[in-house]
TrEMBL record:
Name of the featured protein: ABC transporter permease
Membership in a protein family: Belongs to the binding-protein-dependent transport system permease family.
Location of this chain's protein in the cell: Cell membrane
Keyword annotations of the record: Cell membrane, Membrane, Transmembrane, Transmembrane helix, Transport
Domain ABC transmembrane type-1: 100-305
Origin: domain of life: Bacteria
Membrane topology: Multi-pass membrane protein
Pfam families according to UniProt: BPD_transp_1, BPD_transp_1_N
Regions crossing the membrane: 9-30, 104-126, 147-166, 186-205, 244-266, 286-314
Length: 324
């Protein structure tokens, strides 16, 4: 088990490194740079000489070789230094630190609600495959999963903020306060995230649960008079969860991308607002560091899923070649 964990940690580190290269390369491929944006917003790009732009690029370090800039950025990241914003001059850690708690609170609430909701609905539907509840849950999950998050968010706002005004349409949080102190601002964003994340996991758990309920060990348990609820919760569900764990982890790590859209729609004061603005401004240090942070969260989620699969299915630890 120790060698497996070390191998997975090494693989996760390799994924993060590859993501850092891809992120840095993608930023270099964007048209224009921070200098173009600065002069376009200020004096106007047509009234600035190439020498002035070259001087500003030298001051910002944008004229240095690409490899040197990548090495400097990654060495700073490894030291905990994410660099400075090209526009405000503030430390990226300072900018992110002001909004990251809000994003983490939203993501944590959605993740905590996702696992029990998806597992419970999937298991409930799969335990009686073909029954009315199975059809209702399956149709509902397919319908919700087919809607983009901004469409789901718009529908929720129309219903619960305008037609039936019980929740705020805009999730405003006072600076320096926790969104958990005003939980009503989290309801619609969390429901939107769950509506997009949960369907795939529900369908996977449902399929695995339906297969487990027809297995020989379940039939044998019924012949021995074991109560149906115990068969479902103690035997079938445990084996159904193992294949579904990677997909559940994928749904949770989807928060990394989906939360950007949700925060933008609800005007929620998370890191997404600054990220969208930084992309438009070509603020490379900020965009690179925040995107790399998202990549670390994603790799960590899949690593946790791999370890959870082994924990849920002990037979994997005794199967020849499972470490591969």
């Amino acid at each position: 088990m120790t060698s497996y964990v070390l191998g997975r940690l090494a693989a996760a580190a390799g994924v993060v490194w590859a993501a850092s290269v891809a992120i840095f390369a993608a930023m270099q491929l964007l048209p224009g740079d921070a200098v173009d944006v600065i002069y376009a917003k200020g004096a106007g790009s047509g009234t600035v000489s190439p020498e002035q732009k070259a001087q500003l690029r030298a001051e910002l370090g944008l004229d240095r070789p690409v490899v040197d800039r990548y090495v400097d950025w990654m060495s700073g990241v490894l030291r905990g230094d994410l660099g400075r914003s090209l526009f405000s001059g503030r430390e990226v850690t300072e900018i992110v630190g002001a909004r990251l708690p809000n994003t983490l609170a939203l993501a944590a609430v959605a993740a905590v609600c996702l696992a029990p909701l998806a597992i419970a609905l999937g298991a409930w539907a799969g335990a009686r495959a073909g029954a009315a509840r199975d059809r209702v849950i399956s149709i509902g999950s397919v319908t919700l999963g087919s809607l983009p998050e901004f469409v789901t968010a718009t529908l929720l706002i129309a219903v619960f903020a305008f037609a039936w005004p019980v929740l705020p349409a805009v999730s405003l949080v006072a600076p320096g306060t926790s969104p958990l102190l005003t939980p009503e601002v989290l309801v619609l964003p969390v429901v939107t995230l769950l509506a997009v994340m949960a369907p795939q996991t529900i369908r996977m758990v449902r399929a695995q649960m339906a297969e487990a309920m027809t297995s020989p060990y379940v039939r044998m348990a019924r012949l021995h008079g074991i109560p149906e609820r115990r068969i479902v919760t103690r035997h079938a569900l445990r084996n159904a969860l193992a294949p579904a764990m990677p997909l559940l982890a994928g749904s949770i790590t989807w928060l990394v991308g989906g939360i950007v859209v949700v925060e933008t729609v609800f005007n929620y004061p998370g890191v997404s607002q600054d990220l969208v603005r930084a992309i438009a401004q070509r603020d490379l240090p900020y965009v690179q560091s925040v995107t790399l942070l998202f990549a670390v969260v994603t790799a960590t989620g899949y690593l946790a899923a791999d370890l959870a699969v082994v924990a849920l299915a002990p037979r994997l630890r005794t199967t020849p070649g499972w470490r591969r």
